[in-house]
Specification:
By secondary structure, the protein is an alpha/beta fold. Helix content is about 30%, strand content about 15%. It is globular. The structure holds 1-deoxynojirimycin.
């Protein structure tokens, strides 16, 4: 096997040729046999990441946490939860990654803390607390609903007032209007950068600035609470706060190649340009949601069929919108999404083909690809049969709220099976042994029964596997400047089955053709693009096989 050299680029924009790999620590690899993934497990699997060619590792939160939202509820930003290991092990991980030429990006959850964080314990203890304005307190709640069902306000006896939480009641929102809060966050960020990490993925960072009036929100049909999005998404001071963060934190590390990624749910292309315009000095790239919401109806659980036209249109809008300014991040899956093969592909008859096609279409766009653990072997959704099998607070809360509103249990289960985040959180499938090589203990969340077939060991030496395909795509990004810097043009906005685009560069151009269907596709005029060297795929001619993808270079 050839070794895939890391991209090796340094200096401004180094991340344009990089590939990021996301680990959800709970589910990646369990090093101590307690059924929960941990830092030791990650360290034991670094060979896999290096072999794949990954440049950057992003780990979801490993900080001490009551785990109301699996670590996105942080009670201490400067330590490691014992379930995951120790700070010394994290230092070892940083050193081992750096030795292998890889970087480490940590998840920074700073829109909210845990209600067990000392800041909130203090703030909620009394109206006289020195930290009384660190969170959003009101004598009377407004009508906002939380992203995770139920009201966005909870009463605190100590304060005799209500606090705002856009997620669970155990995740109170920090008040970024207060400069003390912002500077406390910047201190944490510098502390980690001084420890040697290479950047942050900033959780829901476009929620940090709220309309300070917290106005009542419209209530959508069939809903109990107001939809607060207009008052919290990309709020009035968000760009100002991010520019300040840049000055206070990142400007001090200009000699380091850091990566600043913002999770910006439901943001627009226009806002995305602002967040990532290098001249504004806010973020390097954002994780937007538009392409992972095309199968949502009025809300996430209202599941609609896959629509190629809509997917193509939204992806192209981001490609074109950020062509001359800013930079895209490219992802299908993460710990908040069901598995893309089950969602936009075909996890039954065309599993391997559709997994490869989805990878090709993603990795060859302009932007930095993010591989979520298990993507590289084509992991699929889990066959959930009962509500008792779910762990995720979002799914469990929604189930109870929907049942209380009179939705039929089978309809609720259908939505959960399709959309639950637990689909993306089942343990990583390393081999075909009873717990997929994830743990020697009892896994905290069930392993997908299809691990006997879909696993790393089975695919590693197979040149036709999904895993080998991912490796090839990563290698292509490291080697081919057209993948990194070529411009993007959609080749058809109307073909009913085919997603096709071109990447043009002074060194040559790539044509990417993908048949998003289980039927043959006639390329028609697109057949003209079938010229040059076939660098990905094996088909030829003007008709594409079901779920076939091809890349030509000329
Ligand atoms: C986004 C994270 O990715 C998700 O897992 C979490 O539940 C919310 N932010 C709240 O922190």
């Amino acid at each position: 096997m050839t070794v895939i050299e890391p991209s090796g680029r340094t200096g401004p924009g180094w991340w344009r040729s990089a590939v990021v790999y996301q680990v959800y620590p709970r589910s990646f690899a369990d090093g101590n046999g307690d059924g929960v993934g941990d830092l030791r497990g990650i360290r034991e699997r670094l060979d896999h990441l290096e072999w794949l060619g990954v440049d950057v590792l992003w780990i979801s939160p490993v900080y001490p946490s009551p785990m109301a939202d699996n670590g996105y509820d942080v009670s201490d930003y400067l330590d490691v939860d014992p379930a995951y290991g120790t700070l010394a092990e994290l230092d070892a991980l940083i050193a081992e990654l750096h030795e292998r030429g890889m970087k480490l990006v940590m998840d920074l959850v700073a829109n909210h803390t845990s209600d067990e964080h000392p800041w909130f314990v203090d703030s909620s203890s009394s109206p006289e607390s020195a930290k009384r304005d660190w969170y959003w307190w009101r004598d009377e709640p407004n009508n906002w609903g939380s992203f995770f069902s139920g009201p966005a306000w909870t009463y605190s006896e100590g304060r005799a007032a209500y606090y705002l939480h856009l997620f669970t009641r155990k995740q109170p929102d920090l008040n970024w209007e207060n400069p003390e809060v912002r500077h406390a966050v910047y201190d944490i960020m510098r502390w980690w950068l001084d420890r040697g990490i290479d950047g942050f993925r900033m959780d829901v960072v476009n929620l940090i600035s709220k309309d300070p009036d917290l106005p009542e929100a419209p209530v959508m049909p069939g809903q109990r609470y107001g939809n607060m999005r207009a008052s919290v998404l990309d709020g009035p001071r968000v760009h100002e706060f991010l520019a300040e963060m840049h000055r206070e934190v990142f400007d001090r590390y200009e000699d380091r190649d850091l990566l600043l990624v913002g999770e910006t749910g439901e943001t627009t292309v226009e806002e995305g340009r602002k967040y990532t315009d290098p001249a504004r000095r806010e973020l390097d790239m954002v994780l937007h949601y538009e392409h992972v919401e095309i199968d949502h109806g009025t809300f996430k659980w209202d599941v609609r069929p896959f629509d190629l036209g809509r997917l193509r249109e939204r992806l192209a809008a981001w490609q074109t919108g950020l062509a001359d300014v800013g930079w895209n991040s490219l992802y299908w899956d993460n710990h908040d999404q069901p598995r893309v093969v089950s969602r936009y592909g075909d996890d039954d008859r065309w599993r391997t083909e559709s997994a490869k096609l989805l990878a090709t279409v993603l990795h060859l766009q302009r932007g930095t690809p993010f591989v979520y653990q298990g993507d590289e072997i084509g992991m699929t959704n889990y066959p959930f049969a009962s509500i008792d099998e779910f762990d995720d607070v979002e799914a469990v809360n929604y189930y109870h709220e929907a049942i209380a509103l009179g939705v039929e249990p089978e309809d609720v289960m259908r939505s959960l099976r399709a959309m639950s985040r637990d689909n993306g959180r089942t343990p990583m499938q390393w081999d075909d042994s009873p717990n997929a090589g994830f743990t020697t203990g009892t896994p905290w969340l069930a392993v997908n029964p299809n691990h006997t077939e879909i696993n790393v060991a089975a695919q590693r030496d197979d040149p036709d596997s999904v895993l080998s395909h991912y490796r090839r795509l990563i290698q292509l990004r490291h080697e081919d400047p057209a993948v990194v810097d070529g411009d993007f043009t959609l080749l058809t906005d109307s073909h009913p089955q085919v997603f096709a685009f071109r990447r043009r560069h002074e060194s040559g151009q790539l044509a990417v053709l993908a048949n998003f269907s289980g039927a043959e596709a006639d390329l028609g005029e697109l057949a003209e693009e079938c010229r040059g060297d076939l660098v990905i795929g094996s088909g030829h001619g003007p008709v594409m096989a079901p779920w076939e993808s091809r890349v030509y270079r000329r």
